[in-house]
Design goal:
Layout lengths: L34 H19 L4 E2 L2 E2 L2 E3 L4 E4 L2 E3 L4 H22 L2 H5 L2 H18 L2 H9 L4 H30 L1 H9 L6 H21 L2 H6 L1 H9 L6 E4 L1 H4 L21 H4 L21 H12 L7 E4 L1 H6 L7 H22 L4 E7 L6 E3 L4 E12 L5 E7 L4 E5 L5 E2 L4 E11 L8 E8 L4 E7 L6
Helix pairs in contact: 2-15, 4-6, 6-7, 6-8
The protein binds iron/sulfur cluster (SF4) (2 copies).
The site of one iron/sulfur cluster has 14 residues, from helix 13.
């Protein structure tokens, strides 16, 4: 239930959860358990199980997912990525951004309502606990307005303690994604002084999550979230959003006996407004900034329509054009074109991922040096530096060869066996008999691993002009 007076169109001049003088108005959304809510709950539980379960899974001794920004180590679906894979990350991000943009153009804010962690945690954890302890929207308001007494202290205390505990659990899970299960286990089993930064991070994250879910709530979607801010430019009249069918619903009006005036199907019960977690009235129009597409108003209105024996879906997923023309949703050319573009982008990204080598190598002729001539052996040599990064989760053996008639003489230990995720750097001479090779012609170095995968590196070899 919102604190906002909806009897005029003042809503256009300020946010729904703000008074005219800019003060925050607390929203008490009504409790609604409809079909879509149940579907959303089931989907959310699957995502929550994945979110809390994935950090416990490992592949070859490494986490399935790791986003260690400090050590610049990233693992995605068991595939490690390094700063050397920046091009892949950049292409991946661009693909993701285009995917999100196109997805939003077609399907509106489905992400916000169904999959966004903010909505899932808020609606599936924190809100449910609030209903359980404090009761429905009316009871919550009564409790807030009542003077402090034992009941209020106990209810508020229990609620905030549970909120803090869940925030702590979320914080720990996020940390597991950042440092991995093994480091996290060390962190919680060993004295905090040995892991001061990790220990502080857990409590800072806990504080942030607690503040977001206990106090800040819908402000994240309305004020902070950049994706929410993008909606205004991404959506158009063909985007599929949670919409009120104004053609069918208007003119709205209460159902009264002996009233013979022409009325639409909306009985102006405000139930859809009461259940809205951002406090808005969906009947004020399509694509409202605060609407997160949570579908609560669809469930609420369907419940009302059932009671007054009118067809359901006065509020439904539809496009504004669909509502205005009465045409049903169809797989339009626009959707087909966007989908095709997405498939192409995802295919390119997938190809780049699959064709990615399990190592990364860099070959440089040692800077500042030209060539060395051995008059006795009648040989000329150039000094090179070779770096190999093992990008796989297994140790790898490498064989390094140069095309004949050149040969390699290592300076120190040659690169052969390389531990997983480790980089090795070594220097060597490439030598050849004088007069065999033309100055400035390229030569090829071949790197082969134990699986027979090869890479050819080209470099220049210089020698005195004849
Ligand atoms: S719940 Fe349905 S009938 Fe009631 S005010 Fe909202 S749109 Fe109208
Ligand atoms: S208007 Fe409906 S879909 Fe949008 S946030 Fe409110 S309840 Fe959810």
């Amino acid at each position: 239930m919102s604190n906002i007076n909806l009897d005029n169109d003042d809503y256009r001049n300020h946010l729904y959860n703000q008074s005219k003088d800019g003060k925050r108005l607390w929203i008490y959304p009504g409790r609604i358990i409809g079909k879509l809510y149940q579907l959303r709950s089931a989907f959310a539980y699957i995502l929550l199980i994945a979110l809390f379960g994935l950090p416990w899974l490992e592949r070859k001794g490494e986490p399935i997912f790791l986003f260690n920004i400090i050590e610049r180590k990233f693992i995605f679906w068991g595939v490690p990525f390094f700063p050397q894979d920046f091009h892949l990350v950049a292409i991946g991000l661009v693909t993701f951004l285009i995917f999100i943009s196109l997805f939003t153009v077609i399907f509106g804010r489905i992400w916000c309502g169904w999959a966004c962690p903010q909505t899932i945690f808020m609606e599936m954890f924190f809100r449910k606990i609030e209903y359980l302890i404090e009761g429905d929207d009316k009871a919550q308001r009564r409790l807030d307005e009542s003077p402090w007494n034992l009941e209020k202290i106990l209810k508020k205390g229990a609620k905030h303690l549970i909120f803090l505990f869940i925030s702590f659990a979320i914080s720990n899970t996020f940390l597991m994604y950042m440092v991995g299960k093994r480091e996290w286990l060390k962190l919680i089993n060993e004295p905090p002084i040995d892991h001061l930064s990790g220990f502080l991070a857990i409590w800072i994250f806990t504080g942030v999550f607690y503040f977001v879910f206990a106090r800040f709530r819908e402000m994240v979607c309305i004020v902070v979230c950049p994706y929410g801010r993008l909606q205004g430019v991404l959506l158009d009249n063909n985007s599929i959003l949670v919409q009120y069918d104004h053609k069918r619903g208007e003119p709205r009006g209460k159902m009264t006996k002996n009233d013979t005036s022409e009325k639409g199907d909306c009985i102006d019960c405000h139930w859809c407004v009461r259940v809205c977690p951002t406090g808005i009235d969906i009947r004020n129009g399509s694509n409202q900034l605060e609407c997160i597409g949570c579908t609560a108003c669809i469930d609420a209105c369907n419940e009302v329509m059932e009671k007054v024996k009118k067809p359901k879906n006065l509020i439904r997923y539809d496009s504004l054009n669909g509502i205005n023309t009465g045409n049903k949703l169809k797989f339009s050319k626009r959707i087909m074109a966007y989908s095709a573009l997405l498939v192409i982008l995802l295919s390119v990204f997938g190809y780049l991922l699959l064709s990615r080598k399990p190592w990364e190598s860099t070959l440089l002729r040692t800077p500042g040096m030209t060539f060395q001539v051995d008059e006795i052996k009648q040989e000329v040599s150039n000094l090179y530096q070779l770096e190999i990064l093992n990008k796989s989760l297994e140790n790898q053996n490498f064989k390094i060869e140069v095309e004949k008639p050149f040969y390699i003489v290592w300076v120190g230990k040659p690169i052969s066996n390389l531990e997983k995720s480790k980089m090795s750097k070594s220097e060597f001479f490439i030598k050849v008999k004088t007069g065999v090779h033309k100055n400035h012609d390229k030569i090829k170095l071949k790197i082969t691993n134990a699986d027979g995968e090869t890479e050819f590196l080209k470099t220049s070899f210089i020698q005195p002009d004849e």
